[in-house]
Specification:
Distance between the termini: 51 Å
Mean pLDDT: 84
Strand content: 25-35%
Shape: elongated
Number of strands: 10
Order of helices and strands: HEEEEEEEEEE
Radius of gyration: 21 Å
Low-confidence stretches: 1-29
Length: 136
């Protein structure tokens, strides 16, 4: 009678293991690099290779500097081509993710650029801190 219990225990443990193995892959569906910087009017991230063929970008900027808003760009490293640019978002300390996604190659390096702006969208304005990120 011990043999049927063993089979049932193996089936249950296999079911539990397969259920647990799905959860981490789903959680990482929105993973991507985040780059934090101190004060400045322009920042560029290090290169990264996306983990999926569709990507969203975003960032944040701290208030209290001459920058009243900011935007980020996704740039392909090899030819410096701008792939995606965000709207201008306020330097309110909040994360802002640009809604549209861009199609990217998963075997190609990209980087993010962050620009501080005044209220008239003139570049070259400084924020006390800045952040940019990519999500896929």
């Amino acid at each position: 009678m011990t043999q049927p219990r063993r089979v049932l225990a193996v089936c249950l443990s296999t079911l539990l293991i397969s259920t647990v193995s799905v959860t981490p892959s789903q959680a990482s569906a929105f993973a991507g690099p985040t780059f934090d910087w101190g004060a400045g009017k322009y920042h560029a991230s290090s290169d990264f290779v996306p983990g999926a063929s569709k990507i969203q970008i975003g960032g944040a900027g701290g208030s209290g500097g001459s920058a009243k808003q900011w935007y980020t760009q996704l740039v392909r490293t090899t030819d410096k081509k701008k792939i995606l640019s965000t709207y201008s978002y306020p330097t309110d300390g909040q994360n802002h993710t640009h809604p549209p996604q861009a199609r990217v190659a998963t075997n190609t390096a990209y980087y993010l650029r962050w620009y501080g702006q005044d209220k008239n969208e003139n570049n070259g304005k400084s924020a006390p801190w800045a952040k940019a990120y990519a999500r896929w």
